[in-house]
Design goal:
6-stranded antiparallel β-barrel; single chain; alpha+beta; 8 helices; 23 strands
């Protein structure tokens, strides 16, 4: 091995200088350049950090850039909120619970919602589901005052409830009343409420659709004629007002459609025309009496008969003696010795189609007790019309 090494060294020493390996000058230059670049980066970072500690850094504050005047629609929205805010209230509910060991009764917070001042007598309108199941409710005004509320009346089928508070002085202004029969899709709307407990929140949007229907949460009657809007409505907005661009009440925010439980751009409001029919009745009598014609019907039986006969409508299963339906000559379906004996089927009310019992109830809500309406009836493949005067229903 030693002899081999000596032979290699002798062979290298005997080669010409031009054939010997040259030093790697390129690699050395590359390493030098990299070292200088790294040093410059470290120095730059050090200078940037040093600037924050220099005394002259805080000597000259930034100049505010003039904004200019607000846009016309911004001014209108601000004015609408400032005028309407005082009419909106924050509602918190509680449920009385008794301790099984001590027999002491205490209040457990149950939920929150919104509402609005209806009149100068202290009536506050909200959703029925906001106060359903609660033992007590507290109404907070926009100026911070709290009042215990009493329940005046409720209509679960319309998801409307009326509370009353005793305000001795500086009464909040009632919300201006508008109409909903002339609303148009695309019209701008404003919602004020208390979503997730964030009080007096304003959201805006448009009317997305009209005359929607939603089944009640408890499986009760369908809520009809609803306004659909994309204004952000979240839990806590329920019972708050939906306003038009003039600041008038056009609906009560009542529900949302969302898989997550938060706003998905599909919200619903009870139209103010329905509110105007229901709320005065609740204030006067404590309950809403639906107009009726004096017939008996059942939704499940109605579906079975419609499937069997192939004819949609409301099948009259009973005619109350002395009722408007009896006076108009309506005939009920019955079971005879030979099977089912056909009676009348209500297919239209004042020219509007009726396919189910919920449709009929919705059509009745468009009128008042004492109004006279025209019913289109089908019996034994024949069509006729009957004029009936609406009477108090259930």
């Amino acid at each position: 091995m030693i002899a081999l090494r000596r032979s290699i060294k002798y062979w290298i020493s005997m080669r010409p200088a031009s054939h010997r390996p040259a030093p790697d000058h390129f690699l050395r230059r590359l390493l030098a350049i990299g070292f200088v670049a790294a040093a410059l980066i470290v120095l730059w970072q050090a200078l940037a950090s040093l600037q924050a500690w220099l005394p002259w850094q805080d000597a000259a504050p930034r100049t505010v850039t003039p904004r200019g005047d607000l846009a016309a629609d911004e001014k209108a929205t601000i004015e609408l909120f400032e005028k309407s805010r005082g009419s909106v209230v924050y509602i918190s509910t509680a449920q009385l619970v008794q301790d099984v060991w001590t027999r002491n009764v205490f209040a457990v917070p149950r939920g929150t919602g919104s509402g609005f001042v209806w009149d100068d007598a202290g009536h506050v309108v909200t959703n029925y589901h906001v106060i359903a199941g609660a033992s007590q409710a507290t109404v907070k005004l926009a100026d911070g005052r709290d009042y215990k509320a009493v329940l005046v009346g409720a209509s679960p089928s319309h998801d409307i409830a009326v509370l009353r508070i005793a305000v001795a002085f500086r009464r909040p202004p009632p919300v201006p009343i508008g109409t909903s029969g002339d609303l148009r899709i695309g019209q701008k709307v404003f919602a004020i409420g208390n979503p997730f407990g964030l009080d007096w929140t304003l959201t805006t949007g448009i009317i997305s659709a009209l005359d929607r229907s939603l089944p009640a949460e408890d499986g009760g009657a369908t809520i009809d004629h609803l306004i659909q809007t994309d204004a952000a409505i979240n839990p806590g907005n329920s019972g708050g007002p939906l306003l038009d661009s003039a600041g008038r009440l056009i609906g009560i925010n009542t529900a949302i459609y969302s898989p997550s439980g938060a706003s998905a751009g599909i919200g619903f409001a009870v139209p103010v025309d329905t509110v105007m029919r229901v709320v005065p009745e609740l204030i006067r009598t404590g309950r809403y009496v639906r107009p009726a014609v004096g017939i008996g019907a059942d939704e499940q039986v109605n579906r079975q008969l419609a499937a069997q006969t192939g004819m949609a409508g409301v099948y009259v299963l009973e005619v109350e003696p002395g009722s408007s339906a009896a006076q108009a000559g309506l005939k009920a379906w019955r079971i005879g010795p030979d099977g089912l004996v056909p009676g009348d089927v209500i297919v239209e009310v004042e020219g509007r189609k009726v396919d189910s019992l919920s449709d009929l109830l919705a059509r009745m809500d468009d009128f008042r007790v004492g109004d006279t309406v025209t019913l289109r009836l089908r019996r034994d493949n024949e069509t006729r019309e009957a004029r009936v005067t609406l009477q108090p229903g259930i």
